Amino acid sequence: MDTAQAIVLGFVQGLTEFLPVSSTAHLRIVPAFAGWDDPGAAFTAVIQLGTMAAILLYFRTEIARILVAWVRGLRNPEIRQTLDSRLGWYVLVGTIPIGIFGLAFRHQIENGARNLELIGSALIVLGLVLLYAEHVSTRSREIDSLTMRDGILIGIAQAFALIPGVSRSGATITGGLFLGLNRTAAARYSFLLSVPAVVLSGLLELRHATEGNGPGAWPTIVATVVAFVVGYASIAGLLKFLTTHSTLVFVVYRVALGVLVLVLAATGTIS
């Protein structure tokens, strides 16, 4: 992988990580369209650390507040009832499903799950599920109404993002909509919930990023930095967009891209 390819893939990661369109799918599809080698699951996991750094910076005040409240709540039952302390518990418990399934199906995720036909199908299916969630959701709940049950259910939804093409933000926002959260609240909690899972997976795969059959250290560093810069801008953009718009544009994009991928893969145009 040369520097130009690393910049492109970093931009793709930063732009698509927070949109419900699957950054993992795009990091597999874009190289296929361009005729480049598949960068691999390790590269994908590591450069996600760039977008996670963007989340940590963007939500630094909120995350610090949650951490402090969660720690203080361990000793003080009254603080344990505050929203910040509860969010700490919800994020912790909600991370368990993706951790369990990630370890159990790690080999399939790193290898067979990067199949283009699977990615195309997942893009279409989650797009249609998101469309249905938009249709049935009351969108009447704010983030302060979250319960432990919500945290567990959205955490289970996040586990489906282990399938490339599903999208972590897409799955969790969809789960939030099914539970009646408004779009902004669903997206905000989605960002918070993603931090532990992505940081842990990125650190776990970091040792593979510089192996001889991978992209190498320099392209990985470049892509991670670009993903951080672009990701920071895309967080603000998505939150602002969802205050006044539905997710329909993402549904249309997912279905159209999924159909295109399936057609091109079936005809041998991409592989």
Word description of this protein:
The chain is mainly α and 271 residues long. It has one domain (3-266). The protein is 75% helix and 0% strand. The chain contains 13 helices and no strands. It has helices spanning 3-16, 23-34, 41-58, 60-73, 77-80, 83-104, 106-110, 116-136, 148-159, 168-178, 183-205, 217-244, 248-266. Helix 6 (83-104) packs across helix 11 (183-205) and helix 9 runs antiparallel to helix 10. It is globular, with a radius of gyration of 18 Å. The two termini are 18 Å apart. The mean pLDDT is 89.
Strand content: under 5%
What characteristic shape results from the CA principal axes?
globular
Number of domains: 1
> How big is the Rg?
18 Å
Q: What is the structural class?
A: mainly alpha
How many strands in all? 0
Helix content percent band: over 70%
Note the run of SSEs as H and E.
HHHHHHHHHHHHH
From the structure above, extract its key features.
271 residues, mainly alpha
Give the SSE map.
Blueprint lengths: L2 H14 L6 H12 L6 H18 L1 H14 L3 H4 L2 H22 L1 H5 L5 H21 L11 H12 L8 H11 L4 H23 L11 H28 L3 H19 L5
Helix pairs in contact: 1-2, 1-12, 3-11, 3-12, 4-6, 6-9, 6-11, 8-10, 8-13, 9-10, 10-11, 11-12
